[in-house]
Specification:
Elements lengths: L1 H5 L4 E3 L10 E2 L2 E2 L11 H14 L16 H8 L8 E6 L2 E6 L2 E5 L33 E3 L10 H8 L7 E5 L3 H6 L5 E4 L3 E5 L2 E6 L19 E5 L4 E4 L8 H9 L10 E5 L6 H4 L6 H10 L4 E5 L13 H12 L7 E2 L6 E3 L6
């Protein structure tokens, strides 16, 4: 039955933009609320020189926590159909397995050893993925937020294309479909902001976030980026991908409120790492305090912090984001379980998604 519903996907607009939408620019795309100003070589070298001079990032005080995955629950839940318990399992970095609405959904999967165009240099994993590729249930849906190497990992996508039972449905922002098909992927749908795709009873909407794209030296801003709203009959999930802080999140909640029974999301999966130094990162990567504000903007019942503890990409230590998140949460009077982080491999169940 699930295989039948997976064949019934269709694209539609959610009060969507036309071809002349403001974020469509000559030769590429832009953000809604700020023009992305590329850092020039001088600024990049200033950042890297300061990091080297100060010994940044400093070694973590403790390793990123890991636990053995609950494979029995994940497998049983994957077979449960409409009785599936909404859950999220942190694989590492931004990669997360979400089980909801009878679907196994992967967010920005990267299982490779390095977040890099080559396998011998570039940021290396601090620990293995919390779920290995051969431990995954059959994946129904893969959501790609943008084309940076730590979010769009070619070997991982090719492995998912070859999974037993046939390839998943891949959903990507505009102008990424051709690239995915060029490496051999099938079942690829691309979306503009506010466009949606249905997989059975689940609606997937690409939403605006403040970021940028590039995979080489000549394709900056050539493909779109975005977050995702995943709306199932019983549970709603928001995933931000990579983003700076903007009004996009309050606007997302307002535009989608009529589709959300509570007027907000049951779970938001938000980046909490990759934010130092602020003078270089602020327009493209939120810090934990801004993540807490996005949690509030989205009206999220709970939020889960990702994009930390896996790859050394910026100047904060790998273990700093949870401490900064705890301080930001306390400053806004949020309960610990309102905005949490998991150990790599850990699953959080949401057996009672409604208040």
């Amino acid at each position: 039955m699930l295989a039948l519903t997976l064949g019934l996907g269709a694209c539609a607009a959610v009060e969507g933009p036309g071809a002349e939408a403001p974020h469509h620019r000559s030769g590429g795309f832009g953000n809604n609320h700020v023009e992305f100003a590329s850092k020039d070589l001088t600024e990049f070298l200033r950042w890297r020189w300061n990091a080297v001079r100060q010994g940044l990032p400093r070694p973590p005080q403790q390793a990123t926590p890991t636990v053995a995955p609950d494979l029995e629950f994940i497998a049983r839940n994957a077979r449960a159909g409409e009785a599936m318990v909404p859950s999220a399992t942190w694989i590492g970095h931004a990669s997360t397995l979400v089980q909801a609405g009878g679907l196994n959904i992967l967010l920005d999967p990267i299982f490779s050893e390095r977040a890099s165009p080559v396998s011998i240099v570039g940021p290396k994993r601090a620990q293995p993925p919390g779920l290995a590729l051969n431990q995954l249930p059959r994946v129904d849906l893969v959501l790609i937020s943008h084309n940076h190497y730590d979010h769009l990992d070619e070997p991982s996508l090719l492995a998912l294309q070859r999974q037993a039972g046939g390839p998943p449905q891949f959903v990507v922002p505009l102008r990424l479909k051709a690239w995915l098909e060029s490496i051999g992927l099938t079942r690829v749908v691309e979306l503009d902001w506010w466009r949606s795709h249905r997989v059975g009873s689940t609606e997937v909407v690409l939403t605006p976030v403040q970021h940028w794209s590039a995979r080489g030296l000549t394709d900056r801003m050539a493909t779109l980026w975005g977050g995702y709203a995943v709306i199932t009959p019983r549970f709603s999930v928001y995933y931000a991908g990579d983003t700076g802080y903007s009004k996009d999140f309050a606007e997302t909640r307002a535009r989608l409120a009529r589709k959300l029974p509570r007027g907000g999301f049951d779970l938001a999966v938000l980046p909490v790492g990759g934010y130092e130094p602020r003078w270089f990162m602020a327009t493209q990567h939120i810090n934990p305090a801004e993540a807490v504000q996005i949690h509030l903007d989205l009206g999220a019942r709970r939020s889960m912090g990702v994009h930390w503890g896996t790859f050394e990409l910026t100047d904060e230590p790998l273990d700093q984001p949870p401490r900064d998140l705890a301080a930001a949460r306390q400053a806004r009077g949020l309960a610990d379980d309102a905005f949490f982080v998991l150990a790599i491999g850990e699953t959080r169940r949401f057996d009672d998604p409604r208040p």
